[in-house]
Structure formats: structure tokens, C-alpha cells
Design goal:
This protein is of the alpha+beta class and about 250 residues long. Helices cover about 15% and strands about 30% of the residues.
Length: about 250
């Protein structure tokens, strides 16, 4: 006696117990009133799976390819709007304003489940990686000193989220630049930011001469530095000298 075991796509592997091609087993099963019920249930299940997969395949992708943005400031999103983003995404955004200014990135929304957002300081994924972010916690504020930001969003098939959004802006290249050697034994100097705030990620130094055998007096007349920043004063020609104080 043959037994109807399982139904697949009509291949011979689905009817292994009967050891007959599925089309002959199905024909026999259809003639048996007790098996018609199982065939109907399988057919309904197959139709449901087909509809679900068809609906997924037909859904519009929330992003695609690489989006290039050249404005000095703005907002970038994953493209999903009020809906959740799509599955199996591999999308890129290049924020590339004119000039060599620093680009500041601040995420305002972030919900990517187990998927990942990669942020690079540069024009592509070969640039310096600023961070890889997942879950629902807002990433920290990021600064791209190259003047460009490259973002990659990679999603899997299983989990979805509401997506992400960030604001970006450029910081003008005001303030100090590199190492400055002063020639006068007296005078004044400043960080170079004028009436504006100094730049983020600045790393500058000033070296000034002294008269042999005489001490040098340094007096600050204006000082407003964030608690996370630091001004260090050394007795010597570089930062290998004796540290006099940190402010």
C-alpha cells in the first residue's frame, strides 16, 4: 500500500515513500476522498506563501544605489518615510560639499534593529571608518575632517526597523592650522577663531622664542575652552618638554 507523504513543487523527491513520480501520486490522491482534504490544505498554504513572497518582491525598495549630496547642510534619511525600510538593502549616501570644510553629522532618529549603518570619513568605503551603528541608540555626533562623509546601510532579510535620519552641516576652516613658530620675544597670539567658535578636532601648537637666561611669562587675557578640550603649556620647543600646566 502506498502512502502520500508530502507535497512539493511536483518533483520526484516529494513522493519518496511511494517511489513514483509526483504527478501519478497526486492523480491517485485526488481520486481518494480522504486525501483531497490534505491536498486542499497544501494548495492553500502554497498560495499563501506565494502571495507573501510575491508581495515582498513587488514592494518598492526604500533606497538603492548611491545618492550624492553636494549642499553645505541638510538632512539625510534612509528613504523609508513613515514606513519601515526594505529588506536586503545595500545603499550608500555620499555627502560631499564643495570645499575642504569639516562635516558635522548628528543623527536625530535611529531604529535599525540588527541591521548596520557604516559611516566613513571620506568619499567611499575605503576611507577611515568613523563607526558602525546598530540597534536603537542614537550614534554620537561625528566629525569628518576630510570634508566628505560616506554612509552605507546594509539590511538583512529577517528584521526591520523604522530607519534613521541625520542632519549634517559644514564647519568653516576658521581657527588655527598646524604648528606656528613666532619670532618676537614679546607680543600676543590667539587661537585664530576670532568672534566665532573654534573648530572641532583642532590640533595646533605655537612656539615662541625666549632671551637666553630670562624667564618667559605667559598670561591669558581671554579664555573660553570646552571642558572636553585642552590647552597644554610646555617648557621647551615641543610637547616633549616639561609640562607646566593643562587648562
Amino acid at each position: 500500500m502506498n502512502h502520500f507523504v508530502s507535497l512539493g513543487r511536483g518533483d520526484t523527491h516529494s513522493c519518496v515513500v511511494s517511489r513514483k513520480p509526483c504527478h501519478s501520486v497526486l492523480a491517485k490522491a485526488n481520486s481518494h476522498p480522504r486525501w483531497r482534504k490534505h491536498i486542499s490544505l497544501f494548495s492553500a498554504f502554497t498560495v499563501l506563501v506565494t502571495l507573501l513572497l510575491g508581495s515582498h518582491n513587488a514592494a518598492a525598495q526604500s533606497c538603492s544605489g548611491t545618492t550624492v549630496i553636494g549642499t553645505q547642510s541638510g538632512t539625510v534619511t534612509d528613504g523609508s518615510g513613515a514606513s519601515q525600510y526594505s529588506r536586503n538593502l545595500d545603499c550608500n549616501w555620499l555627502v560631499d560639499p564643495a570645499g575642504d570644510d569639516i562635516v558635522r553629522v548628528e543623527f536625530t532618529e535611529f531604529d535599525v534593529s540588527n541591521d548596520e549603518v557604516y559611516v566613513y570619513d571620506g568619499t567611499n568605503a575605503n576611507a577611515t571608518l568613523l563607526g558602525v551603528y546598530s540597534g536603537t541608540t542614537l550614534p554620537p555626533v561625528l566629525y569628518a575632517t576630510s570634508g566628505s562623509v560616506f554612509v552605507n546601510f546594509d539590511t538583512d532579510f529577517l528584521f526591520l526597523g523604522d530607519g534613521w535620519s541625520f542632519n549634517y552641516s559644514t564647519l568653516a576652516s576658521l581657527g588655527c592650522q598646524g604648528d606656528v613658530v613666532l619670532e618676537d620675544t614679546d607680543g600676543q597670539f590667539e587661537d585664530g577663531s576670532g568672534d566665532a567658535n573654534y573648530n572641532a578636532l583642532s590640533q595646533c601648537s605655537w612656539t615662541f622664542p625666549s632671551v637666553e637666561g630670562q624667564a618667559v611669562m605667559l598670561q591669558f587675557t581671554s579664555f573660553d575652552v570646552h571642558s572636553s578640550d585642552l590647552v597644554s603649556v610646555y617648557d621647551g620647543t615641543d610637547d616633549t618638554g616639561v609640562l607646566l600646566a593643562d587648562f
